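Example (one chain per record):
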Amino acid sequence: MKAPDSEVLKYINKYSIKGIEIAWNPSNEITSAVVIPAIKEYGNIKTLLLSLKNNESTYFKNTLFVFVINNLPSSDTAVKEDNKKSLELLNNIVYKFCKDKFIKEIIESGLKIGYIDASSEGKELSEKTGGVGLARKIGMDAALIIFNYKERNQKKLLICLDADCTVKRNYLTEIHRQFYMNKIEAASIYFEHLLTNREDEDNAIICYEIFLRYYVMCLRYAKSYYAFYTIGSSMACDHKIYIKTEGMNKKKAAEDFYFLEKISKHTNIYSIKSTTVYPSSRKSWRVPFGTGQRVTRFQEKTHPEYILYNPDIFEILKNWLKIFHSGNILNPDKYLLLAKGLNAGLYEFLRLQNFVPDLTSILKSSKSTEQVKMQQLRWFDGFRTLKLIHFLRDNGYPNINMFKALDIILTKCNIPVPLHTTEDVPGKEVQLEYLEKLRFLDNNLEI
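Predicted structure:
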């Protein structure tokens, strides 16, 4: 196995978590790793392994599935006991202790499994920084060490998945095919939450997935560069862009958003639409927001759920981006004046965001028009875009009914809207019709 090059070693020495080791059967063929953080996921790990076992096996010999079994020292006993069962299961698979039919099936499938013990006493994640971001990071960093770097031009892929997911049969082959065929460096992978036939959970996940797809659709309508999904279980990158952007962060939530946004400032985030990840629709305590938290919130009825950002916000955003990213580079005061003509809230937001001093600095430090444009793109990034949307929401453009908002944006995009009653919240069948429409558009239409 060829050792990592100097850039990889530099990253490992400067940014990686030290002392982390993968338990696995070493091989000199590994060129991709699927990193799977897991906390109290014993049952789901078994379900995921069965799903992975049924994948097309073309890349089994080159891919290591790395489970990061983790908890904090303060995690309750039930979590630690469940994690202990997961570690035992994975250990039996790795070292081929065929204790039952299930383990034998996984071993004989050809899947290459590894695990990191961040759960046992003395190996737990830090109370201060422990969470999903750190779990992903230690798995991704550890994978850098075991890749075969013999072929310098061969891509080494870091793929993120979650333990409570399943995947389409062509998951591995399509990710590899898209990275090689399209010469991409980072990607968001198409996803669909699975429905459970439990009314409460289904209603919650339909509502939440509509929210996710509406937001990205509106960003696409506005021609935002940052119109891509940031779902932790559905993203991938090659090792070069990973180390270039200083790797995964340690955030306890929204690690996926900040990770892909950081990468997007250096390369395009490609949408892989030819395979599917199926995230869980369950309630969850694991992160303070995201799918599990939204399902919990929906069921507890603590917030109005059937509302979306006002489409007028994205009209303002679209007009602003057209000015800010036009071919002509203007002086900062001129941009601000044009923003004021568009919308008073936009003007106030830019003023509060230090727009004039920041853009003045960009113009002074940039040596070419291309540099200015790149720095403008990085200044008005995905996070600042979201902050603008929230600022406008709170200052004159409050959220509106979900289905009214959907009808408006679909009409703006010249897409027929599903038929429904005039109810504020139509029945499940109509809601599902909207979701299926959005899924179809995601997979088949460039807005």
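Caption: The chain has three domains: 6-199+226-284, 311-394, 399-444.
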